Amino acid sequence: MLPILLTLFLTTLAVQARCDPDPSPPGLIDLGYARHIPTSINTTASGVRVAIYNNIRFARSPTGDLRFRAPNTDLPHVPDIQDGTNPGGPGGPGGPNDVSCISSAPWYIPFPGLNGTTWGQEDCLFLDVYVPEGVKPGDDVPVLHNFHGSAYAFGSKGTFFDPMGLFDAVGKGNGGKFIAVANNYRMGVSGFTWAQGEDLDGNVGLLDCLAAAEWTSKYIYHFGGDPQRITAIGQSAGAGILYYLTVLHDAHGTLDTPLPFQQIFISSPAGPQRRNVTSRQRQLFDLVLDTANTTSLAGLRALSETDFIALNDAMINQMPSEGGGGNLGPILGFGPAPDGSRIPDIPSALIQRGAVHHHDLKGLILGSMASEGQTTSSDEGMPDAFGALARRTLPNASNETVQEVLDLYYTPGLESQLAWDWTTDVVFACNAFNLARGLPGKARRYIMSTPPATHGEDLLYYFYVDDEQTPVSDPQLVEPFQTKLLAFLHGEDPQWPVYGDDERLFNITDSFEATTLPDSLRARCDLVNKLVFDPANGA
Ligand SMILES: *[C@@H]1O[C@H](CO)[C@@H](O)[C@H](O)[C@H]1NC(C)=O
Ligand SMILES: *[C@@H]1O[C@H](CO)[C@@H](O)[C@H](O)[C@H]1NC(C)=O
Ligand SMILES: *[C@@H]1O[C@H](CO)[C@@H](O)[C@H](O)[C@H]1NC(C)=O
Ligand SMILES: *[C@@H]1O[C@H](CO)[C@@H](O)[C@H](O)[C@H]1NC(C)=O
Ligand SMILES: *[C@@H]1O[C@H](CO)[C@@H](O)[C@H](O)[C@H]1NC(C)=O
Ligand SMILES: *[C@@H]1O[C@H](CO)[C@@H](O)[C@H](O)[C@H]1NC(C)=O
Ligand SMILES: *[C@@H]1O[C@H](CO)[C@@H](O)[C@H](O)[C@H]1NC(C)=O
Q1: Which of 12, 144, 465, 491 has the fewest CB atoms within 10 Å distance of its CB?
Q2: By alpha-carbon position, which residue is closest to atom 9 of ligand 6?
Q3: Where is this region: Disordered (predicted)?
Q4: Contacts of 35 (CB under 8 A, 6+ apart)
C-alpha cells in the first residue's frame, strides 16, 4: 500500500512542478479534476469587479454512445490550467467563449441575427461562474444558479443571462454579496428525443440542468459559495425545466433524493402539458430517423457532428412547429415530457397527488406575465382557428369541449385576446398556479401586468443593466424587483405575501400591489386542468 501511495504522491508533485511554474496564479481554483483561472475580470457600471470563470466542464462530451444519454459526470482529469477560452468549436452569438449547445432558431423568432440560423456544438456541457471581488473560500455567500430560456431549441448560458446588473444592486447596499452560476443544456433533437423501448434516456436536457446544479452543490464552496443556500432561477424553458425538476423522481421511483438547491425562482415556466405522450414521442422519433436517413438509434448515434447539427436544423428550422407555444418542432415538439421513469407524469398531475419535492424546497417565487401568449402564439383567424390551437394541447377534444373553452375565454370583438389568453394559461401561467397551490405556505407568486406584459419582460427588470441592454418600460420597478430578489436569495424577508389558501400574490403594475388571485384566472386554470386530466381529450 505504502509504495503505491508514495508513487501517487511523487507523481502528483511531479505533475504540479511541470504544469505549475507559478504555484498560484491570481484567482486559481483547484476543483480536483481541473484547475481554472478567471477568463476575464469585468467591471460593472458602478465599478464592482467580477471574476468570470467561463466554460467549466460539468459533464463529459455527450457524443457517440453518450448521445441521448443522461449526462456522464465522471469528469476526466485535465492537467493544464484552464482559462475558459474557446474550448473547441465555433462558439456562439455571445462571442468565441460563448459555447452553445446545438441551437436552431426558426425564422419567426424575434431575435434578429439569430432567426433562421443554426449554431453551437455537441461538446457543450459547460457552466460559467461569476465571483464578485472580495468573495473567497469560507465566506459562504448565497448562490444564484441560472437555467437560461431557449424554447427548448436555442441559446446558451451567456446569451440569455447576465448578472452584472444585479451585482451592481448589491453594490448599492441591497443585501450582501452572492455568486452566480449559469449552465448550458442540450436542446432540440439532442436534448429531448425519446421513444419507449429504445435504449436511450428521456429528458436528457433536463438532466443536464440537474447535473449542473449538482456540480454547484458539490464544488461552489471552492469559490466561497454556500451549498446550503442555492437558489435556482430560470425563465421560460429554463423555468419549465425547474418546474419539471420539482417532481423529478430518483432511480427508485421515489422523491427521497433531495434536489441540489433549496429555493427556486421561476419566471414564466414553459412546461408542456402533455400526459399520454408515448405514441406521439414514437412518431417524433420515427420522423427524426427518417430525416436523418437512418432506421435505428445506432444510426443516429453514428451520425457525424455536422450531420447531427443539420438534422436538428431540418427538424426545427425547416419543418412547421406544432408544439403550440413554449417549445418547437413537429408533432408535439421537443421539450420535457413524461418518460416512464424519472418523470412519471406531468407536474400538475404529480403535484395533485402530492408527489412533489415538498421537504427539500424551502422557498419559491413563481411568476408569470399577464399577456405572454401575445408574442408566443399565432392569433390569426380567431375564433375559427381556435379549435386547431386548442387541439395542440388537447388533440382529441370534441367540438363541445372547444366550445366550453370558448365560453370562458372568448369575448366577441377581442379575437386575438382569445389566442393570447389561452396560450398564456396553458403554456405558462397555469404551471405557476399549480405549483403555488401545491406548495402552500412556501410559494410566493406574482403576475406582472406592467405594459406590455409580454414574455420575458420581467427578466429585464431583475437583471437590469442599463437602458440600452435591458430597456424597461417602467424604470421605477427595477429597484423593488432587484431588492426583493436579493432578499430572497439571502434568506431575508422579501416583503412578499406567501401564497396560501387565500391565494395572495403581487400584481405588478406600476408598483408591487398585494392582492388575491382573481376568480376569473382561477376559473381558467381550473378548466385547463380539468381538460388536461380528462383522458378523453388525449393530452
Ligand atoms: C466580460 O468582458 C469580456 C471582455 O471584455 C467580454 O467579452 C464579455 O462579454 C464580458 N462579460 C460580461 C458578462 O459582461
Ligand atoms: C428575422 O430576421 C430577419 C433578418 O435578420 C428580419 O428581416 C426578420 O424581420 C426577422 N423576423 C422576425 C420575426 O423578427
Ligand atoms: C438525408 O438525405 C437527404 C437527401 O439525400 C439529404 O439532403 C440530407 O442532407 C440527408 N440528411 C442527413 C442528416 O444526412
Ligand atoms: C366539429 O365540427 C365541424 C363542423 O362544424 C366538423 O367538421 C368536425 O368534424 C367536428 N369535429 C369533431 C371533433 O367533432
Ligand atoms: C392587475 O392590475 C391591473 C391594473 O389595475 C388589472 O387590470 C389586472 O386585472 C390586475 N391583475 C391581477 C392578476 O390582479
Ligand atoms: C393514450 O393514448 C393512446 C394512443 O396514443 C390511447 O390508445 C390510450 O387509450 C391513451 N391512454 C389514456 C389513459 O388516455
Ligand atoms: C384520439 O382518438 C383517436 C380516435 O378515437 C384514437 O385513435 C387516439 O388514440 C386518441 N389519442 C389519444 C392521445 O388519446
Answers
A1: 12
A2: 535
A3: 69-97
A4: 28, 29, 78, 81, 82
Q: 3-state SS of the chain: helix, strand, coil percent to 5?
A: 35, 15, 50
356 domain-assigned: yes
In angstroms, the Cα distances linking 451 to 369, 371, 426 are 10, 9, 21
Question: Scanning the structure block, which residue is given the C-alpha cell 446544479?
Answer: 213
**Ligand 2 site, residue 110, Cβ cutoff 6 A:** yes
Ligand 6 in reach of 276 Cβ (< 6 A):
yes
Helix (H) or strand (E) holding 30: strand 29-30
Q: Which ligand is nearest the CA of 506, by number?
A: 5
SS3 state at 182: strand
Tens-digit pLDDT profile for residues 340-370: 999 999 999 999 999 999 999 999 999 999 9
With H, G, I as helix, E, B as strand and everything else as coil, classify residue 178: coil
Going from the Cα of 480 to the center of ligand 1, the distance in angstroms, rounded, reads: 26
Give the CATH number of the domain where residue 87 resides: 3.40.50.1820
d(CA 117, CA 65): 27
In the chain, the amino acid numbered 526 is: D
Q: Taking the model in full, what pTM does it have? A: 0.94
Cis preceding-peptide flag for 452 (omega within 30 of 0): yes
Q: Are 432 and 425 in contact (CB under 8 A)?
A: no
**Residue 151 belongs to domain spanning:** 29-376+430-438+450-496
Tell me if 43 is assigned to some domain.
Answer: yes
The string of pLDDT tens digits covering residues 492-531 is 999 999 999 999 999 999 999 999 999 999 999 999 999 9
Closest-CA residue to 179 (of 136, 211, 148): 136
- Ligand 1 contacts CB of residue 96 (under 6 A): no
Spacing, Cα 32 to ligand 7 middle (Å): 53
